[in-house]
Fold these 3 entries.
Entry 1:
Amino acid sequence: MPGQKAEALILLTKVRAMLERQNNYYGWEFVFLGANIDAFETVALFGISQTEPSTIMQISKGRNSSMRWLVKRLASYATAK
């Protein structure tokens, strides 16, 4: 078990570094959608901005709402340029 935790921490550190690089060098923005987790806590682990993470709710109404939000967010990138 301790070996697995160390491996997970190393992987998390690598992923966080990759996300930071893409954000800093290329201006990428990451949108995090989490299912059945605390999205704000999770994005902090990855170093993603905590302004707009979204947690997908299990009920279909929640999933539909989350997907509509994501589509609007993605569309805003396409119309921004």
Note: Residues 2-80 form one domain.
Entry 2:
Amino acid sequence: METNKDLAQKAQMSAEKMEALTEQMNDIAIKTERETVSMRIVTIVTLFFLPGTFVSVSNVGSYLFSATLMSDGVDSYEHQCVPIRQRHEIGRV
């Protein structure tokens, strides 16, 4: 009889612990759902702006970043059209 009471108490304690864990997992699931919605919004914004950023940097970036290689101070359109490697070699001569 005493063994049955001990087993019943252990089963009750185990059930209470499982209930607490289930509540914690439910809270985690709700927070995960909120974060998922936030990540979808960030993904949509990124998909909207990233292609334009890539195109603008690929078209204009070579002129902006190659200006630091010019040491002679020449700022003509013809000089800007020279590829970066040739411009660097021209600056050495």
Note: The mean pLDDT is 76.
Entry 3:
Amino acid sequence: MFLPKSANQVAQENADHLEMKRGIERVERWALNSIPEHLRKDVLINVSEVQCGDPNCSPIDTSIILQFKSGGRGGHGNRGDGERRDAERSR
């Protein structure tokens, strides 16, 4: 049987969604600011959360994908231990 959500549940879900959206916007700004200024206008930034099944990593990782109009692309991330990782590929 279907039970509608209470007003408190709906309000909490909306607050959680807003918090997630703001967090993604902060990461997008951080990624954009890490790119040289002359490349910023031609980049598409995709931020998402990825579930990790490895018991040695955090349960949720953040994936940042950078795509440039020129066809170049790359990614950036931090391992669970805080060590920075960069992955760059170009066509």
Note: The chain has one helix and four strands.
